[in-house]
Amino acid sequence: MTIRLLPEILVNRIAAGEVVERPAAAVKELVENAIDAGATRIDIVVRDGGKTLISITDDGCGMTPDELSLAVERHATSKLPGDDLLDIRSLGFRGEALPSIGAVSHLTITSRPRGADSAWSLTVNAGAKGTPQPAALAHGTRIEARDLFAAVPARLKFLKAPRTEYDHIADCVERLAMAHPGVAFTLSDGGGGSRSGLRLTAAQGELLDARLTRLGALMGRDFQENAIPVEAMREAVTLFGWIGLPTLHRPTARHQHLFVNGRPVRDKLMVGAVRAAYADFLPRDRHPLLALFLEIDPQEVDVNVHPAKAEVRFRDQGLVRGLIVGSLKRALADAGHRASTTVGLATLGALRPQGDGAESGSGAAFTPSPLPYGRGGGGSGWGGSSWGGNPPVTPGMAERVNAFQAPYPMPTQPPGLPPLQGRLSGFAPAARPPEYAPASANAPAPDSHPLGAARAQLHNTYIVAQTREGIVIVDQHAAHERLVYERMKSALLDGGVKRQALLIPELVELDEPSANRLLGRAAELAELGLLVEGFGPGCVLVREVPALLGQSDVKGLVADLAEELAELGDALSLKERLEAVCGTMACHGSVRAGRALGIEEMNALLRQMEATPHSGQCNHGRPTYVELKLADIERLFGRR
């Protein structure tokens, strides 16, 4: 077999297959060129999902006739001043985009530099380059690629429907727009149809605020209202951006946007760091919403890993991972007990009257419509199936009235309840402040605390508190679970959780593999306050339990821990495994739903929530409380 050189036009088509695998890739390359050219406005028009037309017009620096001819040659670029491929300070640098697109389409480039008296145009038809010709255009550049892949019809077979290809293009443009809020963008399908809606003005103001404005326009108002700023620097590596509260999450990672030096990337290291930072707050099948921007010396990152420049490689991976994990955890801790506003909005949606009859004065009941958990775009941002059950559906009006206990202030000794001191002693220590005052002597005013003053308990499960601006409904079990969990983590950092010896050791029977897994982690469990030892095949003996848990179901706790360890395996680090086990223990040591609480106990729980980081959601990602503003409640009843 004779070795031969391939024709230049075939070489270009092979290169095009690496760089331009679909219309969205061509749009990405051309928009990056416009941004690198200093454009402040970029207008994009595509037809048939980019297959028949891609037109991109910018107001950048423009090109002279000689530069036009050189721009469509392979490996010709203005973005690599030296010969160091690790010193990349622009989005494009390979010099392959224009010749690759020209090899598989009918390409026309029209450009006019600032200050020039005329514009020039150049065509490339399926790899055949023409000569520059005079043209009409204001300063900047317009690039039109018609009949993409006309020269390689086999590639057309692998493209999806026009709507799908358009969605890929929109996703690509949106990511670039997030990274460059100072640039105005428009995207149209060219026909004035339903898909001609992306119109972004240049954001003004401080960079971080401008990014949030742009992110709100693209990711939705829910994200803008429930995002936490992140700003951190470590060893000349800067991280900034906005991350969503844990109670605002989605079933996929589609709404996680990561950027390195202004370049959208899909980096496994950064994705893993985000997951580790949110591990305490979300179920494993839920993902937070965020946009993070990493600025790093170009010498410390290799962007030449992937032909589409979608992946990067960091020289010091530990530094980058540590910066992301630490910064996100600090930002989430600073958010305190905040929960996303979408939780309250979803609740109000469930309380809307059914039909027009509700306004007729005939006593129409409220419809217990299910809350929109886990829906895309808006909604509450959590999914009922994530923790093995659907969220509680709001009862009818009559049920809610009958469920209310005595209004505030409650007597010190409500009928039918054990003495107050006995109730407090049964309350797990993690939620008891060091001092209690009688309700009559030191009852909090509704406007003296963020979570207000407890007024009643519904169904022995939900605490209703009055705040300055409305009401708060607290899930007592979910809230106390987070408090116990944070106490256990703090104790673990301080050298170990205090243990309480059982008067009579508890014998727990398991299957033999589960028992062996549990005993294999005996040393780690001892750090968490649980002392176990073997007692024959398939049996473990529990001698001591964490003091924080109070009186708990030891057999149920051990069985759940064995199952948790089987699921975790060795995939997580020791610290992550310990935190996961802490969460299971906290669940067993928390105040259970169905337990009656006095006003003092309810207010104690509220004050502890206000003083505990992350108390806006339990360990499984559910919200611990719902806040309803008075204005929204008044609208619900037609008062506004």
UniProtKB/TrEMBL annotation:
The keyword Lipid metabolism does not apply. Residues 374-384 have a biased composition (Gly residues). It comes from the Bacteria. Residues 454-597 form the MutL C-terminal dimerisation domain. This is DNA mismatch repair protein MutL. Keywords: DNA damage, DNA repair, Endonuclease, Hydrolase, Nuclease. The gene is mutL. The lineage of its organism: Bacteria, Pseudomonadati, Pseudomonadota, Alphaproteobacteria, Rhodospirillales. One of its GO terms (biological process) is mismatch repair. One of its GO terms (molecular function) is endonuclease activity. Residues 437-446 have a biased composition (Low complexity).
